[in-house]
Amino acid sequence: MNNKKNSLPLLNKPSPYGKQLLEALLPYGEARRYSKGVRLELVKGDVKLCHLLISGSLEVHRNSDHLLIVTIPGPVVIGLGVHDAYLIMAEPCHVATMTLEDAQRYISEKNLWELVTHQMMLITNKLYTYSKQLSAPTVYELICNQLIELINEPETIRKKISVERYIREKAHVSRSSVMKILSDLRMGGYIVIEDGRLIEIRHLPSKY
């Protein structure tokens, strides 16, 4: 099973289009700084919102079951498409906010729809990858997918979250199952975990 950082999983790949959109829209947003753990909504009342993550990283969670979908580093624009989710600051963040209606107006005025199309195509592919990961045929494969994703997260994120919490927040797997598989992989020398944090993936066997 490939776990090298040079084959960065699609969910971890930064979007060049997101950065360009943020730079174009930033002058029109209201920027604030948020502490780690603060929750931001993508819908307030009946109003859909766009959040421009200038710096820091945040978690995207599904509204229906609070499952962690992905951790996103800035700079990026969130809220142009999916709104059935909420955001949690994974670390101190600098975020600008505007309504989706305003964002769409500025996009039209600046003729940015081609850029938006590229960004939405990338998001669609990421959501497909996420769905495919969750439908892995075995718990072991699901956990391996999350380990590969975690090892490719920025070091600032990997240092702040335990591997067990990362996996369980992203998949409906019991704590005992996660801990058993992690323990076996660690004892076999396949992964390195220190103080609950994932340090290294040496090799993930294709079978458990």
Throw out a few tags for this protein.
single chain, Jelly Rolls, 208 residues, elongated, Arc Repressor Mutant, subunit A, 5-stranded antiparallel sheet, 11 strands, IprA winged helix-turn-helix domain-containing protein, 38% helix, 7 helices, 2 domains, 4-stranded antiparallel sheet, alpha+beta
Q: Could you say how many structural domains there are in total?
A: 2
Low-confidence stretches: 4-8
Question: How would the global form be characterised?
Answer: elongated
| Helix-and-strand structural type | alpha+beta
User: What is the arithmetic mean of pLDDT?
Assistant: 87
What separation lies between the terminal Cα atoms?
12 Å
Largest sheet: 5 strands, antiparallel
How large is the share of residues in beta strands? 25-35%
The SSE string, one letter per element, is HEEEEEEEEEHHHHHHEE
Q: List how many beta strands DSSP finds.
A: 11
* CATH topological fold name of the largest domain: Jelly Rolls
CATH class of the largest domain: Mainly Beta
Can you tell me the CATH superfamily of the largest domain? Jelly Rolls
Q: Architecture of the largest domain in CATH?
A: Sandwich
Oligomer: single chain
The helical percent reads: 25-40%
Radius of gyration: 18 Å
**Tally of helical runs:** 7
